[in-house]
Amino acid sequence: MSSLFPALTGDPGARAALRFGDRSLTYAELAAAAGAVAERVRGRERVAVWATPTPQTAVAVVGVLLAGAAAVPLNPKSGEKELGHILGDSAPSAVLAGAGEALPAASAGLERIDVEVGGRGPVPGDLSEEHHGDGDPALVVYTSGTTGPPKGAVIPRRAVATTLDALADAWQWTGEDVLVHGLPLFHVHGLVLGVLGPLRRGGSVRHLGRFTTEGAARELNAGATMLFGVPTMYHRIAEALPGDPELAKALAGARLLVSGSAALPVHDHERIAAATGRRVIERYGMTETLMNTSVRADGEARAGTVGVPLPGVELRLVEEDGTAITAYDGETVGEIQVRGPNLFTEYLNRPDATAAAFTADGFFRTGDMAVRDPDGYVRIVGRKATDLIKSGGYKIGAGEIENALLEHPAVREAAVTGEPDADLGERIVAWIVPADPQSPPELEELADHVARRLAPHKRPRVLHLLGELPRNDMGKIMKRALTHG
């Protein structure tokens, strides 16, 4: 297999590779620092990385990959119980962290290796297949664990390379691009796409440390060409745009604005497009599959869709009994199943869960529900477990109702769930953060609003008013926290 990072293992030069705040590394400096890490971890199977939003994390992960080991990114905000489970399950031989960073008690028994961004070590120049096979593990990324303890998805080197190359094709992503983002580095979005992606292209990444609209505007106005974010970040951008001409100018000048990790509400799409003339594009992926689909840079940026399957990815929608849906009418809801070189190999130490995740013909069951338009564009309507509502004989996706609710001027945030109903099977429940808490919308007003935009059977029957919606660290709404009180 060829090198994951040709710009590092070929002739690293003085071009900028990474910048975190005021600390930047050229490709030559990154190669030396990552080479020093590789020397320390060569021959090990798995190495944990304390994944703070710092250059040390990037150096650590690249070093582990150069050595042919697998990196296990650790969320610094994980509680002791979760962290203990992840370390016990993945059994890393060491933990990499920035010098001086305090590590929690759960890691006390592990060898600690300090990462120096000014480190100097030999760079392994030959990453050919005889040394590191494309099926060898590159990362073990733990899933959020909504139904039990987190599971470690083993992501092979092949999946990292093919997903990043497929995105390069879809987004016309080159070494000339400069990416800015403020995403955490213990998830696929921030780490694989946001750090390894630019490095594979020979481009540059500027990490904001913590996302702010001011930081994004500053970097885009100073030469950055791409912005990656999650819907919470784009919502903040949409809110700030009317009073911030510098932000509007920055976004208007960007080559590509990409949103992921959850659906971006259509209302925010439209507000950003109206203020900047630029459309945010969405893509769809998971920890286990890396990236599956995207709106292409040379395609139509259609709000509310995640585009078409990426090169090399087979995607199908299936009925509950596993029958493939062949008519793409933009209405028929099915579960997304995918197959391709972008997939993970297994859940670590969980052969039962691995077997259950795949069909007999090798498709991964995503648990995501979608419809597909006649031209192949995919629209996600929600998770099978929490977002598919069966009401009055209809299969209804929560996502399209949430989008409709967000178009109402009295609604700031919205989530939709289902609850048991003796007559309908399930009734639609709206959880709303009002724009003005002193003057919240009435259920009848919102129900009529949804019925006019979508269909009468999609109107909410129950309304709950909240001060805020529960979200995880990627900005995703935690539906289970709503449905269980």
UniProtKB/TrEMBL annotation:
Superkingdom, taxonomy of origin: Bacteria
InterPro entries per UniProt: AMP-bd_C, AMP-bd_C_sf, AMP-binding_CS, AMP-dep_synth/lig_dom, ANL_N_sf
Gene3D superfamilies according to UniProt: 3.30.300.30, N-terminal domain of ligase-like
Family: Belongs to the ATP-dependent AMP-binding enzyme family.
A Pfam short name: AMP-binding_C
Residue ranges of domain AMP-dependent synthetase/ligase in the record: 12-348
Gene Ontology BP, a term: fatty acid metabolic process
One function term, GO molecular function aspect: medium-chain fatty acid-CoA ligase activity
PROSITE patterns linked: AMP_BINDING
Domain AMP-binding enzyme C-terminal, first and last residues per copy: 400-476
Protein name (database record): Acyl-CoA synthetase
